Amino acid sequence: MFLMKDITRDGNPVLRKRAAKVEFPLSDEDRELARQLMEYLEVSQDPELCKKYGLRAGVGLAAPQVGVSKQMASVLVPPEEEGGKPLFKDVIINPVIVSESVQYGALTEGEGCLSVDEDIPGYVPRHDRITLKYTDVDGNDHKVRLKHYPAIVCQHEIDHLKGVLFYDHINKDDPFEAPEGTVMFS
């Protein structure tokens, strides 16, 4: 199981590199990586286990964040109400955003990242709606439409595969300025 000591921190060159495409069928090594990426999210979202293992809770974890420069990320957006179905849960491999809305969305509290230890305030404008194509661990192709928070999370993880960190999107002159018409989410 990945622990906080296994998370690659900001400053490591792997986080600024464009990740390599993943070959199919998946190797045993890649399958295990996918399993561990999702396991981290599941454990980190359980308050007791999160505390027990000293984790920071996460909704997404990309392979470069554990030192592996491959186009793979796990995403687990929890349900809106307890006991509900996650808003999005999968390991996305070789993901591509095929369309995006003109309208932007951003989190009112800004974004955080398991690889970035300090709090970097500011709005991170992202497309409010996206259509995402990706392959799952079994080699099945998916095309899904996501909006609001799940769309923001997937864009954050896909950025990791391109060597981009969330704070690269923050307006340097006015961190709390967002494009006109941006939908804000808390």
Structure overview:
This protein has 186 residues and is an alpha+beta fold. The chain is built from 3 helices and 8 strands. The protein has helices at 28-44, 47-53, 149-161; strands at residues 60-62, 72-77, 88-100, 104-107, 126-127, 129-135, 141-147, 183-185. The strands form 2 sheets. It has a 5-stranded antiparallel sheet. A 3-stranded mixed sheet has the order 5-4-8, with helices on one face. β6 and β7 form a beta hairpin. The radius of gyration is 16 Å and the shape is globular. The mean pLDDT is 97.
Derived structural class? alpha+beta
Low-confidence stretches: none
Largest sheet, spatial ordering of strands? 1-2-3-6-7
For the secondary structure, the number of strands is 8
Q: Note the main sheet.
A: 5 strands, antiparallel
- Summed up, the helix count is 3
Order of helices and strands: HHEEEEEEEHE
Based on CA inertia axes, which overall geometry fits?
Answer: globular
Fraction of residues in H or I helices: 10-25%
Query: What is the straight-line distance between the termini?
Result: 30 Å
